[in-house]
Automatic annotation (TrEMBL):
GO terms for molecular function: carbon-sulfur lyase activity; metal ion binding. This is CENP-V/GFA domain-containing protein. It comes from the Eukaryota. The lineage of its organism: Eukaryota, Fungi, Dikarya, Ascomycota, Pezizomycotina. InterPro entries: CENP-V/GFA (IPR006913), Mss4-like_sf (IPR011057). It comes from Melanomma pulvis-pyrius CBS 109.77.
Length: 138
C-alpha cells in the first residue's frame, strides 16, 4: 500500500493496487499543472484508492483528445491526481508522484510521453520507452 498527501496534509490518500504503469509526461498542460518540466504519473486503478478530505477539482480539455479532471488541495494547491473518461484512462487515477512523499522512489518510469515537447536541456531517460503522443502501449 502506498500513501500520499498534499503539502498541508488536509488531504491524504492511499492505494492498494500495484500501479499499471508510471510515465513521465512532457505535454504543455502537465508542465502548467505541476509547474515543472514534466509530470510523473503513477497510474493506479481508481477502485483501489481511498481518500480522506475533500479535494478541489478543475476540468480541462487537454487539446489532444481527453478531457481531464484534476484533483488538488484547495488550501495549499498541491496537485494530487488526474482522471479522465477517455479511452485508456477510464477507471484509473494518474497520481502525481510528488504527492507520494517517500514512496515516490518506488515507482520508476517505464515510458516518456509527448517527447516532442521535452525541454531541450533534458535528455531522455536511459532504458525507458519513448513516445511522441499518449499512446504509450505500456
Amino acid at each position: 500500500m502506498a500513501k500520499g498527501s498534499c503539502l498541508c496534509g488536509n488531504i491524504t490518500f492511499c492505494f492498494t493496487s500495484e500501479p499499471v504503469k508510471t510515465v513521465l509526461c512532457h505535454c504543455l498542460n502537465c508542465r502548467r499543472i505541476t509547474g515543472t518540466a514534466y509530470s510523473t504519473n503513477v497510474t493506479v486503478a481508481s477502485s483501489s484508492i481511498s481518500v480522506q478530505g475533500e479535494p478541489s477539482q478543475y476540468v480541462f480539455d487537454s487539446g489532444q483528445g481527453p478531457i481531464f479532471k484534476i484533483s488538488f488541495c484547495g488550501t495549499c494547491s498541491s496537485t494530487l491526481w488526474k482522471e479522465s473518461d477517455a479511452k485508456g484512462f477510464k477507471g484509473y487515477h494518474l497520481i502525481q508522484s510528488g504527492s507520494l512523499g517517500e514512496d515516490f522512489s518506488n515507482y520508476q518510469p517505464q515510458g516518456e510521453i509527448f517527447t516532442p515537447f521535452r525541454s531541450k536541456w533534458l535528455p531522455p531517460l536511459e532504458n525507458v520507452k519513448q513516445f511522441e503522443g499518449t499512446d504509450s502501449g505500456l
